[in-house]
Every structure is written in C-alpha cells, then in structure tokens.
Design brief:
The chain contains 5 helices and no strands. The protein has about 130 residues and is mainly alpha-helical. The longest helix is centred in the middle third of the chain and has 31 residues, at about 45-75. It has helices at about 10-15, 30-40, 45-75, 80-100, 105-125.
Length: about 130
C-alpha cells in the first residue's frame, strides 16, 4: 500500500502488466483509470453490434465466394476439382517421405544424434596434443 490508500503503486502496476521498456507509455499509468476501465466492462449493446457485424461479414464473404465459384463453373472451370487434383498429386509425391519419417529408426537416430551433440558440447572440444 502507499500513501494514497488501497491503490497500487505505479511500479507495482508496471511489474504486474510486464511492460517492456519500449512499451511503457510516456504518461504515468493511473491505477484508478485502469481499475475504472476494468470495472466498466463491455456494454451488451456493443457485444450485440459486434456479433451482428461478424455475422454480416461472414455471410457477405460466403456469398462472394459462392458467386465466384458459380461464375467459374459457368465458364467451364472447376476450382474445387483443380484443388483436389493438386492436393492428390502432392500427396503422391510426399507419401514415400512420410513413410520413411514414420519408421522407428528415424526418430531413434535423430534422438541419438541430438544426445551425442549435447554430450559433445558439454565435454568441450578435445584437441590433439602436438607431438
């Protein structure tokens, strides 16, 4: 506590907010303003407007994608079919790599290599003595 009563000291507030040196505002942090903003919360009307705006944006986006897809289909193009073909071709090319990566010897070899690197770095480099 400080001489102002139950309000937090500014240094305590800065540590609690974990502000970096470049994030510290030029003005002093007023704990009373921070507490008032926390108590105020968000008005239900604001939440309702945000939900309605998100719904409207999602609906407009889905309608735009539908119009573009139907326009491409009318022009004789099949974007979904093309995307499926690309993914299938990539899967065929990546299947051998995935099969090798899932073999039990690969993770074991990687773990052994990592352990050896850690042991080597902890011991330090060994230099041969000149004869």
């Amino acid at each position: 506590m400080n001489e102002h009563g139950p309000l937090m000291d500014e240094s305590v507030l800065r540590r609690a907010l974990r502000l970096e040196a470049d994030e510290i505002p030029s003005r002093r942090l007023d704990p009373a303003l921070v507490a008032a903003a926390a108590r105020a919360g968000i008005a239900p009307r604001t939440v309702a407007v945000a939900v309605m705006a998100a719904f409207a944006a999602g609906w407009l986006w889905s309608e735009a994608v539908r119009v573009v897809a139907s326009g491409l289909a009318a022009a004789g193009l099949d974007p979904l079919g093309a995307a499926i073909e690309v993914v299938a071709a990539a899967a065929v090319q990546l299947a051998p790599l995935a099969e090798v990566a899932t073999q039990p010897t690969i993770p074991l070899a990687l773990l052994t290599a990592a352990a050896m690197a850690v042991i080597f770095e902890r011991r330090g480099r060994v230099h041969a003595k000149e004869a």
